[in-house]
Design brief:
Shape: globular
Number of helices: 16
Distance between the termini: 20 Å
Structural class: alpha+beta
Radius of gyration: 24 Å
Strand content: 15-25%
Number of strands: 27
Length: 699
């Protein structure tokens, strides 16, 4: 088929200047940390004790080189979800907000190891946290971006606050990651070059922050900039081991990973510090980089001083919190910050330079000025819930679309003649190339890349699939070259609703001025395909992608969105990964009436959106429903009270298109002439929880 282009406009040259606008902060708002909470499990494990469990003698001086003397370890009676809940509770305990006040909830833990030999998939962590605290229908999803995930969540929340979309957001993570250390002690074969050695440096914890608009421009985040070095995406990977004992394992090219973070990270930090006018004399009191090892922290300090040719990073102002925490992954910066606050070393008015890094390979820098938060943490102020919810009775939240409208510029899917490897990563690469081939944009003009596939090869947990895809496709592979555009990649996970949420997120990050173009991708595989072929989820194993940009005429694109959570149906789906005797598979339960429940919940959400918009069901020219099955589309047409022919149908019995539903339905509708210029469509997705998302789209 011929490529579909909705709006004929002049094609930009690759690397055009409008695509290179800096994503350093915004003049619309400054985001403030209103409250912070942390949690550490009580069990303390010395490095020597952990090394003694290794099947080979470890002669490498781990404690001396890393600086890690002890770390906290969970896993006996508490897991990732428990630590996230505890950190969130601590955060609420000193906040003026109650759980019902939170409008945006982002969960960021790499590990979703939530029970013995169980890794959760659906419902996601955000839905579990919202249900636990009784939150009132926040926009909620999980992220995956290795150790940079909490910062990715803060970056997204900053865009939403800057655009006036939300007033308060919570970003939370619970990391039970020492299970990889338990796997590593069984597998490490030599004590220096073995790529599993880094598993012995991790520690468990939870952290949460509540964010809001700062009351003054001299407080909060002044700059927050992140990008992905796509060519270095494979320096650290974590997935399920193929050994008989089972469990997760992480492989790290330690020397390469450190080198790839230190010099470019120092360059970025110095650039942002200068942009913030925090030099020539240091106008900051603290530097806090990702806590991986004392050696790395010292090397980063020396690199910054070498680049500036002056000692601005010192032992006194560079925080090293590694000795009794280890590398706590996504929570690293916040565990260190709270520890320093409690020791009286961070005070109100202090300025902090945050250095961000995570496998994939994501780098970033943030400049932050504290309000009285340090005083409130030290004084253990307890004032949760003094501010009342704006509208506690609201059930469906209508989210405004940014202006100008963000439109779908091209759609790609897995080609019919695909003959490559049967792999979620290969599927999404093929779909992304298909979308790029139909686009006016060169691949190196893609600024934001979000992957939303839930089920992936080997139960991969890091890095983000988006980073691996961008790296393999050589999208902006040379970030060290000054003046060359950089991409930012991460995964957003929330059952089949995640794809529409990613489009919503991308639209507002584009509107905040952080990027000009975005690509949202997905792919799914059946994880039981080889081990349990008679026990499958019923997914269509495929991939898809859409490229988004701002419509210059503000005529076509997304209108308002609606997202709704139906907690009464929370138990209708439960899916988790497990293992035994070297085999890994998915266990799942589904209510036999699930499709009927989905149809009911969709109809209620659609009605709420149309009522809020002053529209009727007859104002919608075409519906783009979840492509679960032909029966589901029958049920939905009945619930909506519309002719079935108005619903785009590319479904197959027993092959749920799941996260690819939106892309497949939209492209089919355009190519078959089912929707045309000037008409209005309604994009719909429904997933576990039950959660429903829908959006008006003007073609």
């Amino acid at each position: 088929k011929e490529p579909v282009q909705e709006i004929p406009v002049e094609v930009d040259e690759p690397g055009s200047q409008r695509e290179m606008r800096p994503s350093f902060g915004t003049d619309k708002a400054t985001t403030l940390i209103e409250s912070v909470g942390t949690y550490l499990p009580p069990k303390v494990v010395p490095t020597d004790e952990l090394l003694a469990e290794c099947k080979v003698q470890i002669r490498f001086p781990v404690e001396k080189m890393t600086g890690i003397k002890t770390r906290r370890m969970a896993g006996e009676d508490e897991f990732a979800l428990d630590m996230a809940k505890n950190a969130a509770a601590d955060c609420f305990s000193r906040s003026k907000y109650a759980p019902a006040d939170i409008e945006l909830l982002i969960c960021c833990n790499i590990s979703r190891y939530d029970a013995p030999t169980q890794v959760s998939f659906e419902p996601n962590t955000a839905a579990r946290i919202a249900r636990h605290f009784g939150m009132k229908n926040p926009l909620m999803f999980d992220l995956s971006n290795a150790c940079a995930t909490m910062w990715t969540g803060i970056n997204i929340a900053d865009s939403f606050i800057a655009n006036g979309i939300v007033s308060r957001a919570m970003v939370v993570s619970g990391e039970y990651i020492t299970h990889i250390a338990k796997t590593a002690v069984r597998e490490i074969e030599n004590d220096f070059m073995d790529r599993r050695m880094a598993c012995l440096t991790v520690g468990d914890s939870g952290a949460a922050v509540i964010l809001e608009k700062a009351p003054a421009k001299d407080l909060g985040f002044h700059y927050l900039h992140m990008y992905t070095e796509t060519e270095l995406c494979r320096n650290c990977v974590a997935y399920m081991t193929d050994q008989k004992h089972g469990g997760a394992i992480m492989y790290v090219e330690s020397v390469k990973a450190a080198a790839s973070a230190i010099q470019p990270g120092a360059k970025l930090a110095l650039s942002v510090i200068q942009k913030g006018n925090w030099l020539p004399e240091p106008a900051f009191q603290h530097i806090l980089i990702h806590q991986t090892s004392s050696t790395t922290i010292s090397d980063a300090r020396r690199e910054i001083n070498s680049l500036y040719n002056k000692k601005i990073a010192t032992e006194e102002n560079t925080i090293d919190n590694i000795a009794h925490r280890g590398n706590t992954a996504t929570t690293s910066h916040w565990i260190a910050t709270v520890d320093r606050i409690r020791r009286g070393e961070i005070k109100a008015g202090d300025k902090m330079v945050f250095g961000i890094s995570g496998s994939g390979h994501t780098l970033g820098t943030a400049l932050y000025t504290f309000d009285d938060l340090p005083d409130r943490v030290r004084e253990n102020v307890r004032n949760s819930g003094t501010v009342k919810p704006t509208d506690p009775a609201a059930r469906t939240t209508i989210w405004k679309a940014p202006g100008p409208k963000i439109s779908i510029e091209s759609v790609g899917w897995l080609p019919e003649n695909y003959g490559g490897e049967h792999s979620s990563l290969e599927f999404v690469k093929a779909a992304a190339l298909d979308a790029i081939g139909r686009s006016r944009y060169d691949k190196n003009e893609l600024g934001l890349i979000i992957h939303t596939g839930v089920y992936r090869d080997k139960f991969l947990s890091e890095p983000a699939v988006a980073a691996l895809m961008a790296g393999d496709l050589m999208i902006n592979p040379h970030p060290e070259v000054e003046g060359v555009h950089k991409s930012f990649t991460f995964d957003l996970l929330n059952s089949s609703v995640g794809f529409l949420q990613a489009c919503f997120t991308a639209a507002h990050m584009l509107h905040a001025g952080k990027f000009h173009t975005a690509m949202v991708t997905t792919s799914e595989i059946e994880n039981n395909r080889e081990s349990r072929p008679n026990d499958l989820l019923g997914l269509a194993e495929t991939g898809s992608a859409v490229i988004l940009h701002a419509d210059e005429d503000n005529r076509t694109g997304f209108g308002n969105f609606a997202f709704r959570d139906f907690p009464a149906f929370y138990e209708t789906v439960n899916i988790f990964g497990t293992w035994h005797d070297g085999e890994h598979w998915l266990e799942f339960t589904r209510n036999p009436n699930l499709e009927a429940y989905y149809a009911e919940c969709v109809a209620r959400t659609v009605n709420d959106l149309l009522t809020a918009e002053g529209m009727s069901i007859g104002d919608i020219d075409r519906f783009f429903p979840p492509q679960i099955s032909p029966l589901f589309i029958d049920l939905l047409a009945q619930q909506l009270g519309v002719d079935r022919e108005k619903l785009v149908d590319v479904s197959q019995q027993g092959k749920d298109l799941f996260t690819s539903s939106l892309a497949y339905a939209v492209r089919h509708g355009l190519e078959e002439g089912l929707i045309g210029e000037g008409q209005t469509g309604l994009l719909i997705q429904a997933g576990s929880g039950i959660q429903v998302g829908c959006a008006l789209y003007y073609f």
